[in-house]
């Protein structure tokens, strides 16, 4: 997938070092941070003022350092459906990921751990995918969800649960096939079976993939 360049980004992060580091990282790859704020309330105002291509925000921000950033992200998506938002978190909080992706149709949303920023190509790929309409969940969050919810995914085989977890991470069929060392045709067959067993309505495949991820998160 070709990289998206020239994105206009609103960034919300209370750590000065991380905020400045992200500004520099985005600039290196042809993007521009049009506003960088340190409080959740300022994030709301910045989005209204600058109309960005994508929002990148921390979960926990001043004044309470609980879930202020997430709350504003959810609010923004309700006001502006389709606004791409990538949420960053210091810790694995599956409830935050679920709440975020439950807003609207679940597209153009991502939830990543901050550790992922150090893996620059992976982080930028996630940002690109969110802007292009994909749903992205950090692999570690997916692993924890999968461990906790195996029983609720009972209709799926072990391989299908594995494939669904990789779909939730935002991986393409080709990437899943390469990781599992099988053919793309085999992955496509597993995904069709997942759609059928989860009783997902007929729709365009990308939308059904999002529905499958949301079913996984809500199960």
Automatic annotation (TrEMBL):
The keyword Nucleus does not apply. It comes from Micromonospora saelicesensis. The lineage of its organism: Bacteria, Bacillati, Actinomycetota, Actinomycetes, Micromonosporales. Residues 149-219 form the HTH luxR-type domain. It holds the Pfam family GerE. Keywords: DNA-binding, Kinase, Phosphoprotein, Serine/threonine-protein kinase, Transcription, Transcription regulation, Transferase. One of its GO terms (molecular function) is protein serine/threonine kinase activity. Residues 8-129 form the Response regulatory domain. This is Non-specific serine/threonine protein kinase. PROSITE patterns: HTH_LUXR_2, RESPONSE_REGULATORY. The modification 4-aspartylphosphate is found at residue 58. SUPFAM superfamilies: C-terminal effector domain of the bipartite response regulators (SSF46894), CheY-like (SSF52172).
